[in-house]
Amino acid sequence: MTNLRLLANGEIDAALTLADAVHPDGRAPAIGRVYECYIQVAVRPASPILHLTDLRGRRVDLGLVGSGSAATGEQLLRTAGLTPGVDIAVEHRRLATAVQALQRGEVDAILWGDEVPTPAFEQPMRLRLLDLAEWVAPMYQGSGYPYDTLSVPASTYPGSAAVDTVGVPTLLLASAELADHAVTCLAELLINQGDLLVPLHTIGFQFLDRRWLVGTGRVPLHPAAAAYYRAGHG
């Protein structure tokens, strides 16, 4: 969504977006594969919800309208046979507000995509993550995008058990009009100062080295970025 629309309209020159949302036609080439986004679904620890399909008839917050994780979340729910707005009541909040709504019982589950642990949890709270491993292959079959299976360690959040979840890379894209030298500067920034972009104590930001930056999948690398990676970094 929103970032892709702004990029297509020429309102911004570069954008971070989830790879499953990007059309592989090269109109918005990638500067690099930056990090892995963990799609996470959380419920209260004592909730009777044990599986994704248990969300039928429940209230679920999917995050802000237009966000990539909300779109991926809808794909996940539809894959599980849950139509948003029909089988579940969908709400949209910023993550920090959604966490509070979950604590107060205003929603039954929250879905978001980010690194783990997620910095938006300013005050660590007890929650239970749903295991989503069984939906990774069906999501690929339904959408054509090869999602990853990622492991979330136990106690990532207070009291949480280890689970597997859905992963999707986050790409840094360039507009078609962005000058080659600007693309090169951004690629250089990712290579040489990428560690400054990585929050401490997170495990979802593992792609800030040349081996992973170039792994943009079906989205082609911008020629200037590809040339920079080849010339200076093999």
From TrEMBL:
Listed InterPro entries: TRAP_TAXI
Protein name: C4-dicarboxylate ABC transporter substrate-binding protein
The organism's place on the tree of life at top rank: Bacteria
PANTHER family (UniProt xref): SLL1037 PROTEIN
Organism whose genome encodes this protein: Nocardia jinanensis
NCBIfam families reported in the protein's UniProt record: TRAP_TAXI (TIGR02122)
A Pfam family annotated for this UniProt entry: NMT1_3
